[in-house]
Amino acid sequence: MADVMQRTKKKPFGMAILFGIISIGLYIALLGNQDILNDNFAKGGWFAFLPIVTAFVFSYFHGNFTGYFWTILGVEASKKKKEVK
Amino acid sequence: MHDFAQTASNFINLDAVTLIYLFLVGFVGGLVSGFIGSGGAFVLTPGMMSLGVPGLVAVASNMCHKFPKALVGSLKRAKYGQVDVKLGIVLGISAEAGVLYGAHIQENIKKTFGDAGSNLYVSVAFVVILAVVGIFILKDAWKTYRSGTAHEEEKVTKLALWVQSINIPGTMVYFKSLNARISILFTIPLGFATGMLAATIAVGGFIGVPAMIYVLGAPSLMASATELVIAFVMGLGGSFKYALHGMVDIRLAMIILGGSLFGIQLGAIGTTYVKPFMIKVVMGVIMVIVLFSRGLMVPVYLSQLGLIEVIAEDTVKMLKITSFAIMIFALALGAFIVLRAMWQGRKAEKLASQESLVHSKA
Description:
The complex is a heterodimer of chains A (85) and B (362).
Chain A: H1 2-8, H2 13-32, H3 34-41, H4 49-72
Helix pairs in contact in A: 2-4
Chain B: H1 4-9, H2 16-36, H3 41-49, H4 55-79, H5 85-147, H6 158-165, E1 172-175, E2 180-183, H7 184-201, H8 205-216, H9 220-244, H10 250-270, H11 277-304, H12 313-361
Antiparallel strand pairs in B: 1-2
């Protein structure tokens, strides 16, 4: 029964599209403003927070997108081994 | 450290081929990291340098992609109950100290012996550590496979049992991955060594994961997942240190991250399908192959230091290309083993669920 429920479970298309669009937007902004980024992110000192914050922002949006991406493709964790111990 | 203006001018131009190359290497590196807790960096750093990125910018940018990747990977594996956050943070803090000390040693060697001396130190560290630890891990995995106990719960080593039996009042902490209380004093040298290795060869996990398994007594799956927490702590501190001097090329870091987040999710999912000894197989295989790659470069650096006869320029070029190709092969083979094991695990699970469906109908 649980197996049937798993198979009929809705795939997170909406979330994947939402995070996918934000993720693509972030990459367009990154590649479209290379000169500004190179100038400001390499200033050092207090500007050191810029690359760190950027990395966290990308990891949140792109990380969620990649997670949903594999779920939609049906690549999910084994149902048998949820716990190691 | 470099002046920021000079560093900014050292940031390379990115074309489509470079973007795709970084994305793909990031993906494969992420896949292996998601599975064994580390790896990928040893290809990414020289890979970036081969594109014309200065060494320090390559190291800094690699580190800046590593910590968000490790964060996503550890969160994913925490969902499967594989992460011991407390152990990861405790080891991560001493690893951070190891990174700083390792970088300091590197700087001193570079000052005294120049680039060739520094490269020789890195290569010798690679060869010695990977030979000892890699062969030990592979032997252990082979023993498990031959004994037919791959399905059973992993046995805690005698050394780990001894570590767990030592009681030093005021320093004892319970760790869920070990299901035991151990003295925090034992974790300090292990974390420190992990950090030192990370500062030297960029992959601290080659010490961190085996140390957690064989010295502390953690199961392979938990050790490799907890390594991601250590990588996050180390990577965050290291990135900030480099960013203070304007060394991080955020474009490179985020493009590699773009590929590696696809990979790390897949690698993490893969761990739920395989037997624990597969972690040791993948790690051991990569370590032994990379050992040959770095070993090839030792005569080059020895000749540059004047310790052996001068090697012809063409031979040096050839050795460099072969060494890099072997590294890429090591990473690709690791990724192949992960994907194959995952594929087989999924197939077996599907077959078992179909059989149980037939049985229940009958």
